[in-house]
Design goal:
Length: 199
Amino acid sequence: MPPPPRLILATRNAHKTAEIRAMLGDRFEVLDVTSFPECPEIEETGTTFLENARLKAEGISRVLGGWVLSDDSGLEVDALGGAPGVWSSSFGGEEGNHSRNNERLLAEMEGQTERRARFRCTLVLAREGLAQANFSGSVEGRIIANSRGAQGFGYDPLFIPDGFAQTFAELGESVKNTLSHRSRALAKAIDFLEHSISK
Ligand code: IMP
């Protein structure tokens, strides 16, 4: 059997990589940019998930060649006018500091009765520096008042998806991967990935 085609993820977030790898199974050899120290840090200067996902996929594929998949994602909270949105990873003041992000979210939501929120994810697939396709997914739910659960990452301990009584951090990766924003975007991308990348 020939080796599976290689797909490089334009992320340094080990949780995103683990989720995407688990969902793609052994159809692809999934690596992320931590395997390529020569990869530059891509500045996320866009104002939408699509713009940022495109910057990352095109920027990394320009350097590495081959097929690159990026994920730009975040949480939109209705009571906060859609914030933190594209700024989800630095909401607490420090890029990638999930506990500070969650502390700020809890503080901003104190006393709020409107708790509706959703995660959104946009995936961009690029090759040789050019975006080839994009796919989006979202999952509706609500923000709770106290963090619950130890699995997952980011805002998972504060988010209960519709139809469930537990947070993503309590439900764990296998359940999260059946209904998350990321899995819904990836489900749309699968056909394209299988037909383009295997050639
Ligand atoms: P990005 O790396 O710029 O796409 O930022 C994504 C940020 O959105 C993460 O740092 C988290 O704060 C949040 N986020 C995205 N997806 C998830 C998820 O599946 N669970 C929890 N938080 C998420």
